[in-house]
Amino acid sequence: MRRTAILLSTLLTLSACADLQNTNYDYAFISQARSFASGAEFPGQVYLLNLSGDGAPLTELNLDLQIDDSLYATQGSATLSSSRVVGASANLVRRGVVQASGSLAFDASIKATNTQVRRITAPQAARLLSDAYREAVSGQESESDLPLYARQVIDNPDIYYAFVTGYMETDALVLQHGTPEDSDSGVTISINGIEFSNVNVGNRNVYSCVKSGAERAVCAISIELLDARLVDVGGETLFRAFPAPFAPEAIAQAFRSRG
Asked: Is 146 in a helix, a strand, or coil?
């Protein structure tokens, strides 16, 4: 079975009485909306996502896939008022000493106005990528140099396609640390799977996106991971992309690594 091993820390809640510093919320994953906090990418962009630790974590493919509007499923903002957020990064500092550093997760309050999420599913993205491969390989005589970096994905269990499958557009979107119940005693956060309570985060606003004109702003994107294999169908070798296990923290870290 092709998959990257994920190490899970035992969940433990500690009273930190500490400060959250060096925070980075770019590409943090908003679970309730299944979207990443960024408006820099657009649907149809495809990347190589390398989880091996050897080489660039993210490489954009020279590919511009068009997604027909009829394929999008739409989710309104009626339920978008709170969410678990994962994949940010931070240091937890107490009396000048770093107590923990790494992947940050927390519960967030969300203020959203006129928000809509539009995305396609991972199986739909896999079909679009398989179609793009079939067009690229048409007329190619040798399989030794496959298009779309397919050989790297097929041969390496730690390399996937990261497909931008949709976007969130809104008049205004604000994410805030914690819930109203946390306001007097700090917030509870998790770093690398270990929970800390009573954490001082300073400004509770962690991500804000507001439209600048008449049209709604794109404030978040949807990304799915795809794997690939070659299959024999009636003596013909065909490329098949298929959904890979979803790994939001790995996706966030790879996209954020581009600086």
From this structure: coil
Q: Give first-to-last CA distance, the chain, whole Å.
A: 33
DSSP string across 173-221: EEEEEB-GGGTTS-EEEEETTEEEEEEB-SS-EEEEEE-SSSSPEEEEE
Question: Could you identify the residue written with the tokens 């799977």?
Answer: 193
For residues 211 and 172, what is the distance between their CA atoms, to the nearest angstrom?
A: 6
Asked whether 162 and 50 are in contact (CB, 8 A), the reply is: no
Two structure tokens written together for 104: 């940050």
Model confidence pTM above 0.85: yes
Going 46 to 259 to 204 to 190, the CA torsion angle's sign is positive
Our measurement of the distance from residue 36's CA atom to the centroid of its chain's CA atoms, rounded to an integer in Å, reads 5
* Segment 103-144, tens digit of pLDDT: 999 999 998 889 999 999 999 999 999 999 998 887 566 556
